[in-house]
Amino acid sequence: MPNQVRYRCNACGNLTRFDVIEERKTRSFYHYTLGGELTIEQSEDLEHRVEQVICRWCQTGKSVIPVTPDEDLQGTETRPTTAGDDAT
Ligand SMILES: [Zn+2]
Q1: How much distance in Å is there from the Cα of 54 to the middle of ligand 1?
Q2: Which of 29, 54, 70, 73 makes an SS bond possible with 19, Cβ 3.0 to 4.6 Å?
Q3: How many angstroms separate the alpha carbon of residue 70 from the centre of ligand 1?
Q4: pLDDT digits (tens, 9 = 90+) for 38-82
Q5: Closest Cα partner for 18 from 87, 68, 65?
């Protein structure tokens, strides 16, 4: 899943339940049979805008912040570089 955004509510620590209000414009390939039965074979996001993310528990989006998955992995950037750390 590319660009998967997660959210966190700083007020209650919620990581899993949100109401997301979003606007999405998509281009889809509608494939009909001659009998009129529809299969959507491809769907591509042309525009996607998240308007509001509301914590289910707090009923407000005031404390909800986006969390990118990269943040957890890139802990090296903030690691303090202690120069005098040689063991010998
Ligand atoms: Zn909350």
Answers
A1: 8
A2: 54
A3: 22
A4: 999 999 999 999 999 999 999 999 999 999 776 554 444 445 555
A5: 65
3-state secondary structure 29-61: EEEECCCCCEEEEEEEEEEEEEEEEEECCCCCC
Residues 22 and 40: their CA atoms lie apart, in Å, by: 21
Cα angle value 31/34/35 (rounded, 5°):
105
pLDDT at 21: 96
Centre of ligand 1 from the C-alpha of residue 15, in Å: 9
H helix and E strand count, the chain? 1, 4
Find the 7 Cα to ligand 1 centroid distance in Å.
10
